[in-house]
């Protein structure tokens, strides 16, 4: 029984690893299609949705959360955005190529891994209806 359970657990882990590798490759292919200057550290990082969720809840929600989006129509909802698009925007804010003092400050506080993590998290959230 233990051997059968261990084999099932191992198979599950291998499938999970294979799925993550495929997701990583697809994410990087989408980044490549943008023809943007994406740092190598972002490309080599295996994005972690859990870390992205923590970042979103601690740093992004103040402006991009549901409560603020109802008040500040200018702030975009990040839910359901393409992960590669979000990476590109954060990289450009951080580099000063895209100008917004609030977002520049926020992006400067993110590591390359943070950028990919939070982008993946938001890309997996359901779209919010526009009102």
Description:
By secondary structure, the protein is an all-alpha fold. The chain has helices spanning 2-33, 40-44, 49-64, 66-71, 83-95, 101-108, 112-123. α1 packs across α5 (83-95) and α5 packs across α6. 22% of the residues are buried.
Biggest β-sheet description: none
Poorly predicted parts: none
Mean pLDDT: 85
Q: DSSP helix count?
A: 7
Strand-residue proportion: under 5%
Number of strands: 0
- Overall morphology: globular
What is the fold's blueprint, element by element?
Elements: H1 2-33, H2 40-44, H3 49-64, H4 66-71, H5 83-95, H6 101-108, H7 112-123
Helix pairs in contact: 1-5, 3-7, 5-6, 5-7
Short description:
By secondary structure, the chain is mostly helical.
Descriptive terms for the model:
single chain, mainly alpha, 131 residues, globular, 70% helix
């Amino acid at each position: 029984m233990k051997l059968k359970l261990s084999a099932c657990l191992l198979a599950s882990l291998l499938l999970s690893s294979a799925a993550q590798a495929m997701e990583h490759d697809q994410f990087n292919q989408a980044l490549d299609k943008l023809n943007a200057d994406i740092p190598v550290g972002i490309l080599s990082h295996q994005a972690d949705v859990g870390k992205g969720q923590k970042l979103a809840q601690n740093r992004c929600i103040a402006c991009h959360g549901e409560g603020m989006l109802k008040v500040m129509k200018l702030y975009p909802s990040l839910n359901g955005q393409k992960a590669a698009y979000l990476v590109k925007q954060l990289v450009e804010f951080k580099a000063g190529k895209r100008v917004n003092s609030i977002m520049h400050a926020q992006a400067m506080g993110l590591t390359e891994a943070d950028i990919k993590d939070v982008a993946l998290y938001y890309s997996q959230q359901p779209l919010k209806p526009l009102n």
